[in-house]
Specification:
Layout: H1 8-22, E1 32-37, H2 39-43, E2 53-56, E3 68-72, H3 78-81, H4 85-88, E4 89-95, E5 100-106, H5 117-130, E6 136-140, H6 143-151, H7 156-166, H8 170-173, E7 178-181, H9 189-199, E8 204-207, E9 211-216, H10 219-239, H11 250-260
Parallel strand pairs: 7-8
Antiparallel strand pairs: 1-3, 1-6, 2-5, 3-4, 4-5, 6-9, 8-9
Helix pairs in contact: 5-9, 6-10, 7-10
The structure holds 1,3-dihydroxyacetonephosphate and zinc ion.
1,3-dihydroxyacetonephosphate is lined by residues 29-32, 72, 74-75, 114-116, 139, 186.
């Protein structure tokens, strides 16, 4: 059996957490990632039958029964994942209709998965229903998107249109737009359910005054979505206090749709 520390999925997870920390999106223990793996991928690197511990989840997610996830630990710092992946990450199998997670590797200090596990698992279920290739849910605290939720309307169409207008490629990268939740108590099943509901129609969900969720088929896609939205928010925060002289018009957005073969969220362009 191969050493799990050499597994491409583990190496990519370590690189991604390090990169996110370096971007300033994950101060202290801020942020969390879950990456769905197939049994074949896991079996190459570990004994899928040997359960180290069973950890209750506090929710149900029958769609995810039997699925494997590499996930960041609660209270763990992204900056430390590269130095001790076995402490800061865990590999779990969802069982009992989602009520329990069997720990197969990691969390060696007795830790457990992120407090945002409900939002992650419920979002996986929601995204898998839209796109069976979805593998990643990623949460972080990007500075400018967070700042934007203090000064911009939280109306989803208005929020999305502002981001699209900030960089030409935004509409190409996230034509489905950005959904927005009001401030809610984090780490609860309620915010998990609300996030999953929003994930049905977009791969990006803003948690007002808190952060952002991104979903994708791989770590690169989820990271790239967040990176692009955060760049747009940065531009917005640089110009919001200045007179607006130019913008990207809806006609120009339609040209982008044609050039890149994307379709903007229904009703979001005139
Ligand atoms: P965890 O340390 O439990 O992952 O929580 C971090 C966070 O960002 C909460 O929203
Ligand atoms: Zn958070």
């Amino acid at each position: 059996m191969k050493d799990i520390l050499t597994a491409p999925f583990l190496i990519e997870m370590v690189r991604t957490t390090t990169n996110m920390y370096d971007h300033g999106w994950d101060e202290r223990n801020g942020g969390n990632i879950s990456l769905m793996l197939s049994e074949e991928e896991v079996a190459e690197y570990g004994d899928v039958k040997r359960v180290l511990r069973t950890i209750p989840t506090g929710f149900n997610a029958p769609e995810l029964d039997g699925k494997y996830f590499l996930v960041t630990g609660t209270g763990k710092y992204f900056k430390n994942v590269q130095y001790a992946p076995d402490v800061n990450l865990g590999l779990v199998k969802i069982v009992d209709g989602g009520a329990n997670a069997q720990l197969l590797w990691g969390f060696t200090d007795g830790g457990k998965f992120t407090s945002e596990f409900p939002a992650h698992m419920m979002s996986h279920a929601a995204r898998l229903a839209v796109n069976p290739a979805n593998r990643v849910v990623m949460h972080c605290h990007p500075t400018n998107l967070l700042a934007m939720t203090y000064v911009h309307s939280l109306d989803e169409k208005a929020f999305t249109r502002t981001l699209w207008q900030m960089c030409t490629e935004c509409i190409v990268v996230f034509p489905d737009g950005v959904n927005v939740l009001p401030w809610m108590l984090c780490g609860t099943n309620e915010i998990g359910e609300a996030t999953a509901e929003k994930m049905k129609t977009a791969r990006l969900v803003v948690w007002s005054q808190h952060g952002l969720y991104g979903a994708g088929v791989d770590l690169d896609e989820a990271f790239g979505l967040i990176e692009t939205a955060e760049k747009a928010a940065e531009i917005y925060m640089k110009i919001a206090h200045l007179p607006l002289v130019n913008t990207i018009t809806d006609d120009q957005m339609h040209l982008l749709e044609g050039r890149f073969g994307v379709k903007a969220r229904e009703g979001y362009l005139s």
